[in-house]
Specification:
Radius of gyration: 17 Å
Strand order of the largest sheet: 3-4-5-6
Number of helices: 5
Number of strands: 6
Low-confidence stretches: none
């Protein structure tokens, strides 16, 4: 990557600055995986939008509000909390195939509707999400229901 950036602009300061931004970006998205661990075993699943800050402080999430909260914790604003649903989240970012996913990417699942559920990819075929059956938990997306 260093050589590619240097080929674009042959200034060492520029290469360091660009790679520094890239490093901050990667660390932020990897950190989003870790922040959700706070609520494993200590949360309540409440279906549907309408979460408010008081709900989040008490660990009351649906899938999209957990994703919103986790990204906000690492300084990434996904929009107003009251308007976050899977439908609005799926229009953010750039879609990638499952084989290209990296920790911190948002994963969508077809459940009661297309893209009816959302979670945060943690790596090794697993994601962290707020589910009605488990509340906030890490689930395997390579088999069973989430496949």
């Amino acid at each position: 990557m260093r050589r590619a950036v240097f080929a674009y602009n042959r200034a060492d300061w520029y290469v360091e600055e660009v790679l520094g931004f890239a490093d901050q970006y990667v660390k932020g998205y990897v950190a989003v995986v870790d922040v959700g661990n706070k609520w494993i075993g200590d949360s309540v699943y409440v279906f549907g939008r309408g979460r408010n800050q008081s709900d989040l402080v008490r660990g009351r999430f649906d899938c999209s509000s957990l994703v919103h909260w986790a990204f906000k914790e690492v300084g990434v604003n996904l929009g107003p909390l009251t308007s976050i649903i899977t439908e609005t989240l799926r229009h953010l970012g750039t879609p990638v195939s499952p084989s290209e996913m990296k920790p911190g990417d948002i994963a969508f699942f077809d459940t009661y509707k297309g893209d009816g559920h959302v979670g945060i990819y943690v790596g090794n075929g697993k994601f962290i999400g707020a589910q009605s059956s488990t509340e906030v938990a890490i689930a395997d997306m390579t088999k069973g229901y989430w496949e």
